[in-house]
């Protein structure tokens, strides 16, 4: 079996004027990503996602990957990551190289799973998980005026028992946002906060200490990803676990996070970290050092499918079945048809449970009409 076709498909959706949303760093109206479609000589099709702009992803794939991928046996997928670091030399750590690699890698795993009739999480060595616990990413900063509690109230009404909210614009207002979220979610709900790297260490520490009474499960990106000393400063002064990884790319970035004990939780994004092959190495490193793994997901439905398959494979170490700490997976609650419309059977987090597809490969089928509707190159 060999790969005979590689297609890059840019996708885009723009929110209406005045409906922008975002984080402490600002608002945005455009959701965009790039899919990769591989096909083999025996007709198997694999899908992957490069969480990067279409023109850049396509150019990177054409320049660095296409010649090696066409004619490749999909079962050789794990050689792609090594090759990205060594040929061409020095390019492997670049975000766009890792994003392009992610898409091709996941698409190859999709084909491999389909060829042997197994879901990817079983190929990665995971136990046969059937469900995961979704957490709502909500309470974004928005351009429109709406009640602060409304988004998280909607998530609770959908059945979510865990949620992550945006803070980081001002230590004074952070406390009110967390207070409202905890009140709506209830004492038994799992609450996380995301600062999106918008603070200096002393600001992050101030907020972390001020919100400690609200039982926060983790603080995500308290300082910028390029500020490792800042992570160490924050970690030394707060008791709340720290999480990061959405802006880290490849095994070597994550090794530094893990080895230097900068965080308690690593969050690889399957559309940027190097794909499933790199994510498995990252999870092994994290497990060895007793660091938790929780994938970051702000992707299309294809990236979400990859993250769910990956999450279902991650080890529970050091927990036994008698220590309940569910595998949490992010479920963005903003408007995003690239997530909600792209599959023939969209993921449904209602009731606070997310089913892990048990069909071969990624276990999902693309809705071709929706794909055509959101293509950015037509």
TrEMBL record:
It comes from the Archaea. The keyword Metal-binding applies. Its EC number is 4.2.1.6. GO terms for biological process: amino acid catabolic process; carbohydrate catabolic process. InterPro entries: Enolase-like_C_sf (IPR036849), Enolase-like_N (IPR029017), Enolase_C-like (IPR029065), Mandel_Rmase/mucon_lact_enz_CS (IPR018110), Mandelate_racemase_C (IPR013342), Mandelate_racemase_N_dom (IPR013341), RHMD-like (IPR046945). Its cofactor is Mg(2+). CDD domains: MR_like (cd03316). Pfam families: MR_MLE_C (PF13378), MR_MLE_N (PF02746). This is Galactonate dehydratase. GO terms for molecular function: galactonate dehydratase activity; magnesium ion binding. Residues 148-241 form the Mandelate racemase/muconate lactonizing enzyme C-terminal domain. Keywords: Lyase, Magnesium, Metal-binding, Plasmid.
